[in-house]
Amino acid sequence: MMSKALKGTLAAAAGVALGLTGAVAAQAQDDEASTLAAGNVVIEDDGIQLFGDANGKDKSPHASMIALDTGDGDLRTVYCIQLEVNLEEQYLHEERPWDDVPVEDLPKVLGVLLNGYDGTNAGELLEEAGLASDDYGDVTQDQLAYAATQSAIWSLTDGWVLDTDDPTGDDVADTIVPELQAWLLENSEPVDEPDLEPYFDVDDSEAKTEGSTVGPFTATTNIDSISFAQPEGATIVDENGEEITSLSDGQVFYVKFDEAKTSSVTLVTETFTWTTPAGRTFVPVDAEGADVEGQRLILAEEYTEEYTAEVEFEIAVEEVPSESPKPQLPVTGSSLTTVATVGGGVLLAGVVAMVLMRRRAARADWGSDA
């Protein structure tokens, strides 16, 4: 049986159907900025007061435990990344790429975040650092873990140095916070900026046809998994020929057509699972969306959610005249090569409106409270 070389392109298309209200969905498509994540600041706890200096100036900030309200009932732990700038909690905070945030050493900050307190792991963090105890006195594990992580971040962004004699406003914290900060800094490596948007791509460079089967195709994505319904006229299978109904990064798959002929299939996704990464940065904005001078924040926790989104992409196999002589195909008698094109609605900007927080919805909430 003859194998025919395939060449392919990935074409991005619009037409993403989101599980949003009509108004928000329309705004997500009409306003490019609406793809940015956003949320309202919530101070969950006053935290532990720290004492020290930043760039030669005495400071005594509270490591207040801060979160962003995602608008869906969940709060996501964040940290301040500018010690000498006020937290403007009355404003909506909107996502910005690192290049738009005037803070140095963000790769080192993210390294600390990935090792530090993410809002859920205080006990495990203290245990790993060798600082666990049966009695923390008047402070909690969460307050200690947050304060040490915040202090470590400020040491990178603002030259913050804890007072060696009186580092905090609590006797237990006086011991644990400096030691945990030192442990975090010693055990963290710089990490590059995370992806702000989900993406999905298909590599068809190695694909060829064998009878009614076309492939291999390889999925490249930062989405945890994307599920789909089997297309009409074909079955999506793995390397062993077993039927599959979801794709993840690195997944190799084939299209097994019902008949050995040139054809096309359309995959329609049903759901996708996306892990929002730590390290995304946020700035305060006014009612028009313009940046306001104020404390910048960085997201501390990863979290995974499943979303419903219909996204179509098509795999088309066509026979076209070759540019150079090829073996004659017995059916047509023509010198042909087979071209596979993968295209369609890849997960693009609109989906991001759902990924973390909905900018328009959050802004509406903020405006109603003003």
From TrEMBL:
Pfam families: TED
Transmembrane parts of this sequence: 336-356
Keywords: Membrane, Signal, Transmembrane, Transmembrane helix
Signal sequence segment: 1-28
Segments forming domain Thioester: 78-185
Source organism superkingdom: Bacteria
NCBIfam families xref list: LPXTG_anchor
Protein's name in the database: Cys-Gln thioester bond-forming surface protein
